[in-house]
């Protein structure tokens, strides 16, 4: 569907029923369908007697005619997902799942668990507007001689927290049946409005022994966007005991606890649980259960157009297996016959994170010497939470003042300013001097700085105080207006304010071996990037050479969080387990004096006994 169709719907109404009436009426008209009996469809059809609504429908039909040659079921599903309100999308994590992903998961689930499909019970426990259930119904119709009426009543089950999502699922399935010739007054749906975190399927299914298949796209919601009631419910689940939990994580346990013996769970979901802290309890849960587990990892490829997420397909059968089957691929090759690597559960470390790519080499690196995190301290830069207020490039200066341009030109006392660099911008070709900026620093000059009292700030630095006071309304909006700061003019966080003599700067993300820059000015502050601190210059130069090596980059590309354009995270939790090999004095001297990167690469790979 073209964007102006979405734009029209967005401006038309915020009421789900009004939007649904428009979409359903247009779909029925464009596909020349006749509804003679079905009550729910008839209740959503706009007729000419309601002139205002009918005129809007005519306008909408014209926009559709100019946008697409065919208003098919996939366009309908995408429209249903699009018109979910932004607030609900943030809180409930609803997102449109592409057709090829849905079909692949369903076909694989049927392939893994072959049986008497006439008796199968198949569910989506976060069904949204019913995309997966739509394809399941079609699959069962193909594999059996059942009618849609029988399939809806006996074989497919759905659950969602939003009433309008369940209504849309009923509409979608009713249209599917109508399109293929089944027009009855009322279908007997097994579709329920409830919270999956507390719903009990035994209460709605007699003699329930688990589903043969559960498929879906669990909700993507970060902990900070969840309500207090949901946060309390998360505590009931074993897999939610570590880190700041994303809502998709408990859906693994919920699904597996509602799967029959030999049943299959098939999800498209985030791949962050491989290594993240919040996935630690989930990894431990998987290893304890040792189930037959296939992972198709999309790495940094973007599957969802509307969401910047990194995903994988998980196919888990409820029977025991000693290993995980893993493959890294891309969406283009989804239908290929993949060669899966077999990775033994007993060789995985749920605490450190799963090394699923090149497992033997990564495990060898991590078991060498002492882990990076036990030797080196890393720190993120300062966090003002409003850099454009505090950080500036002077438009001019004189003996006592810098001049800051921010709406108007402001005089800022030099004595309240410090040098600061965006360490993500540092490269071997970029000098620190070229990217230095100034930062208003409302703290004293001690090794561990303390915030200046407001009266002292106003007395000693009246121009800086006046500027900050004029921007107070902006500073007050930090942390969505809920921030609790020592004073209104304090930085948003207190990290990295202390004086540190030696700092080895390196970026948060990179698409090549990182360029690490050593700086010895204890007064220089940094933001956006990160640094290793608290070590001698010799120790800093040594780790610089290691981090810039091919071996280190191989480790990062096989263990770290991927981003688009082949960028990878260098945050501490992704580098802390890299093993720092034991080096004698002769080897240290050689590394420090050698500047040829290929020679150093060969040395490190020989030292770790690894070849690529």
Structure commentary:
The chain is α/β, with parallel strands linked by helices. Among the domains are: 3-91, no CATH class; 358-373 and 545-612, no CATH class; 380-534, no CATH class. Helices cover 37% and strands 18% of the residues. It has 25 helices and 24 strands. It has a nine-stranded mixed β-sheet, sandwiched between helices. A four-stranded antiparallel β-sheet has the order 11-22-18-20. Helix 2 (16-30) runs parallel beside helix 10 and helix 18 packs across helix 19. The radius of gyration is 29 Å and the shape is globular. The two termini are 46 Å apart. The mean pLDDT is 91.
Poorly predicted runs are: none
How would you write the strand order of the largest sheet? 3-2-1-4-5-7-6-8-9
Any idea what the shape is?
A: globular
Q: Helical proportion?
A: 25-40%
Largest sheet: 9 strands, mixed
Q: Based on DSSP secondary structure assignment, what is the total number of beta strands?
A: 24
Mean pLDDT: 91
Distance between the first and last residues' Cα: 46 Å
How would you classify the helix and strand content by structural class? alpha/beta
DSSP summary: helix tally: 25
Radius of gyration: 29 Å
Percent of sequence in beta strands: 15-25%
Kindly list the characteristics that best describe this protein.
612 residues, alpha/beta, 9-stranded mixed β-sheet, 4-stranded antiparallel β-sheet, 25 helices, 24 strands, 37% helix, 18% strand, globular
In short:
With 612 residues, the protein is an alpha/beta fold. It is 37% helix and 18% strand.
């Amino acid at each position: 569907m073209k964007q102006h169709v979405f734009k029209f719907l967005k401006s038309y109404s915020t009421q789900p029923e009004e939007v649904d009436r428009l979409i359903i009426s247009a779909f029925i008209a464009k596909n020349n369908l006749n509804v003679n009996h079905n009550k729910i469809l008839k209740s959503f059809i706009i007729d000419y007697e309601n002139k205002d609504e009918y005129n809007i429908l005519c306008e909408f039909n014209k926009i559709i005619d100019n946008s697409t040659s065919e208003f098919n079921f996939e366009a309908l599903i995408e429209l249903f997902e699009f018109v979910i309100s932004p607030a609900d999308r943030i809180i409930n994590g609803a997102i449109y799942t592409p057709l090829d992903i849905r079909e692949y998961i369903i076909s694989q689930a049927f392939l893994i668990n072959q049986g008497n499909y006439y008796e199968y019970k198949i569910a989506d426990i976060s069904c949204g507007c019913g995309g997966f259930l739509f394809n399941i119904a079609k699959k069962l119709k193909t594999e059996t001689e059942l009618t849609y009426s029988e399939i809806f009543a006996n074989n497919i089950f759905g659950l969602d927290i939003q009433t309008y999502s369940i209504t849309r699922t009923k509409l979608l399935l009713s249209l599917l049946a109508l399109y293929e010739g089944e027009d009855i007054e009322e279908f007997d749906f097994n579709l329920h409005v409830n919270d999956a975190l507390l719903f009990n399927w035994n209460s709605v299914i007699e003699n329930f022994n688990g589903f043969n298949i559960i498929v879906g796209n669990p909700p993507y919601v970060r902990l900070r966007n969840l309500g207090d009631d949901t946060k309390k419910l998360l505590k009931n689940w074993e897999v939610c005991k570590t880190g700041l939990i994303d809502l998709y994580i408990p859906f693994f346990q919920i699904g597996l606890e509602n799967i029959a013996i030999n049943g299959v769970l098939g999800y498209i979901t985030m791949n962050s649980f491989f290594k993240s802290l919040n996935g630690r309890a989930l990894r431990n849960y998987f290893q304890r259960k040792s189930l037959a587990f296939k992972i198709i990892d999309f790495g940094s490829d973007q599957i969802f157009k509307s969401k910047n997420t990194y995903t994988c397909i998980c196919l888990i059968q409820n029977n025991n297996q000693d290993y995980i089957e893993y493959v890294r691929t891309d969406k283009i090759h989804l239908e290929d016959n993949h060669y899966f690597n077999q990775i033994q559960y007993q060789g995985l470390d749920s605490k450190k994170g799963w090394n699923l790519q090149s497992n033997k080499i990564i495990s060898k690196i991590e078991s060498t010497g002492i882990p990076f995190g036990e030797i080196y301290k890393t720190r993120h830069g300062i966090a003002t939470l409003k850099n454009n207020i505090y950080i500036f490039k002077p438009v001019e200066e004189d003996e006592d003042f810098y001049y800051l341009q921010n709406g108007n030109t402001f005089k800022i006392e030099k004595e309240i300013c410090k040098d600061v660099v965006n360490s993500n911008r540092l490269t071997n070709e970029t000098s620190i001097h070229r990217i230095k900026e100034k930062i208003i620093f409302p703290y004293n000059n001690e090794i561990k700085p303390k915030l200046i009292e407001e009266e002292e700030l106003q007395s000693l630095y009246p121009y800086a105080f006046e500027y900050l006071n004029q921007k107070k309304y902006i500073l007050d909006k930090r942390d969505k207006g809920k921030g609790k700061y020592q004073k209104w003019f304090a930085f948003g966080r207190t990290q990295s304010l202390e004086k540190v003599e030696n700092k080895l700067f390196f970026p948060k993300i990179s698409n090549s071996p990182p360029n690490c820059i050593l700086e010895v000015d204890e007064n220089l502050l940094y933001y956006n990037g990160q640094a290793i601190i608290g070590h001698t210059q010799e120790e800093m130069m040594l780790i610089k050479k290691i981090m810039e090596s091919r071996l280190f980059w191989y480790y990062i590309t096989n263990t770290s969080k991927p981003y688009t354009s082949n960028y990878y995270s260098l945050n501490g939790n992704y580098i802390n387990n890299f093993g720092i090999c034991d080096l004698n004095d002769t080897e240290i001297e050689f590394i420090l004096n050698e500047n040829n990167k290929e020679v150093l690469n060969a040395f490190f790979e020989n030292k770790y006994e690894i070849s690529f």
